[in-house]
What we know:
The complex is a heterodimer. Chain A has nine helices and no strands. Chain A is mostly helical. The radius of gyration of chain A is 21 Å and the shape is elongated. Mean pLDDT of chain A is 82; it is low at 1-11. Chain B has a domain at 3-63. Helices cover 77% and strands 0% of the residues of chain B. The termini of chain B are far apart. The A-B interface holds A 18-19, 21-23, 26-27, 30-32, 34-35, 38, 40, 43-44, 47-48, 51-52, 55, 103, 106-107, 111-114, 119-123, 133, 136-137, 140, 158-160, 165, 180, 183-184, 187-188, 190-191, 194-195 and B 7, 10-14, 16-17, 20-21, 24-25, 44, 47-48, 51-52, 54-56, 58-65, 67-69, 73-74, 77-78, 80-82, 84-85. Chain B: This is Zinc-finger. Chain A: Belongs to the sigma-70 factor family. ECF subfamily. Chain A: Residues 24-87 form the RNA polymerase sigma-70 region domain.
Amino acid sequence: MQNEISKDVDHKRFVAEPLTWVVNYADYLYAFAMSRLRNEAVAKDLVQDTFLAALQRLDTFEGKSQEKTWLTAILKNKIADFYRKKSSVALRDLKISDAEGEQHNFFDAETGHWNKEHSPGAFGLEAEDPLMMKELRAILNDCIAKLPGLWSAVFSMKHMDDLESELICTELKLTAANFWVIMHRTKLNLRACLQKNWN
Amino acid sequence: MTNALKNIIYNCNQATFLIEKKMAGKISAAQTLQLKVHLAGCSVCKLYMQQSLLINRLFSSFSAADFKLDEAFKISLTKKIEREINKN
């Protein structure tokens, strides 16, 4: 299939056919959005926004790339916008210093020791059973959904998109120091959430 | 013993911070040594590190290919696109 398409590349320019978009690309774009957002409602919204935005600028589709590539590029921008919006709302709601303050729940403020009630305990899965991993992953997705917006934006961009830390700081207007505080906080929270809901 | 080393040996807050920074970026040679000393004596942070790695692995092994849109949503999408086209 892929080969047939690429053979045609030299011979003709691609034509946009919006009436076939849903059949041809909706599932692909949805899976793409899900891999980055892990949230069904948001992924659906962004797929819809992508199609509608693409219709608005059909005239900018020059036929140099395939429709799929073009639509995916629009979706990528929508996802980046989503992160930016989410983190700016979160910045308004939650200052970085709050993130540092909350850290004291996990550790003794004086000594930096784990507070007993937050001290990690074994998950009790020695062998990595694929079914267990699947269940754990579902729990983890719920835990991410509960994070403050800025944290989940930072974490998603780092781990799902595998972006450079510097790029994330620029995008979300964070200092490197704040970035690492958030990464640390996020992992402490996710780990605790996983333990609480798994055991 | 230097102060930095003394501080980290007993400080799990700092140790877990270095664990995260090491996994997602990099830490200095001195910090690597501090962390090593801490982990040698702290089984709780060692467990934390294993679990933190597991969480990262859970993410990277996520497969979105299983996700499909439901038919009802696709039908509503198609209708919206048709409506937009007819507007123009």
